[in-house]
Amino acid sequence: MPSTANRRRVSSGERLNAHSEPGRLRLALEGRGVRLTRQRRILLEVMDQAEQHLSADAILERAQKIDPRVHQVTVYRTLEMLKRHGLLDELDLLHIHGHRHFYESHGPRDHIHVACLRCGKVREVESELFEQLKRQIERDTGIQITVTRTEIGGYCEGCRPR
Amino acid sequence: MPSTANRRRVSSGERLNAHSEPGRLRLALEGRGVRLTRQRRILLEVMDQAEQHLSADAILERAQKIDPRVHQVTVYRTLEMLKRHGLLDELDLLHIHGHRHFYESHGPRDHIHVACLRCGKVREVESELFEQLKRQIERDTGIQITVTRTEIGGYCEGCRPR
DNA sequence: ATAGATGCAAATATTTTGCCGCCAG
DNA sequence: CTGGCGGCAAAATATTTGCATCTAT
After folding, report:
1. ∠ at Cα B110 (B109, B111), nearest 5°?
2. Which of B99, B134, B142 lies closest to A156 in CB terms?
3. Domain A4-154 has CATH 2.70.98.10
């Protein structure tokens, strides 16, 4: 089962895709003294270069193209580690694609995932309004926000019912 | 595994809890000519009276207290049906409680779930800002929004690190 | 009467764990 | 050298499906 969900930024620039210089994730981990194994280097490269939201399966597939000696369990353990470090966002895109999860390197800004429930296309949206909303919630609830996940579903122009 | 997540509205009134007059869900289904079986009546009652976000397991448990002849599969099929009708929201509360899903009857307004990552308490927040955000996204992307899911995690006053 | 719902068992799908040998630092 | 990491197999969790039977309308 390949991954799905095309990725397209609405209000920010495209992600650069040079080839093998250390990406964001790898740099972040080096800075924190996390042990970099062969497997982790590969997985970080896969995720740093992903232009899509990847499922755990899709990550494994891509990793094994680089080096087949990567095990699915290691993928899960690495994802877990990245989440612990707050470097990874986990989505499920409203379960349009079953109960699989999708992962993406958590960039500098939060963004909202907007998915078409019919064709499955996913757009990413950043919004100052959303930043305001977070600040308002921090004020109102006294909670200090560390992660957010906003998934919005609907029908895109081509997919309107009727 | 019981359900968790206390429910507390911030900006709206508390949910009433009379005993057996038809609740929101049941009324909605009657209006749509959906067949009401013994099992469905029970499940709708459970959900209409829930003061918490319930997992599929928790829904089954409560239903079986009313009548043990309700099967887990029927719970899943009923949840599925309610989702199709847009009467049910499905959450996973940022996976604080494992990969279980939680369900709640979708009230008249969207709301945001704000969870403390340490103590697990969940608050529900409604916000005009969020309504504005949805309208902005509809304008910007041309998507007609039908469902939203916003889950925010952080640390509440009592649970701040340090 | 009959389309649609349920129960049961088995299949799927996805993620986690125990244990032991291995390798990055 | 050594503690954290990875591989393998097996378990756990959560949900879905096929099919025969039943029931609300």
Report:
1. 115
2. B142
3. no
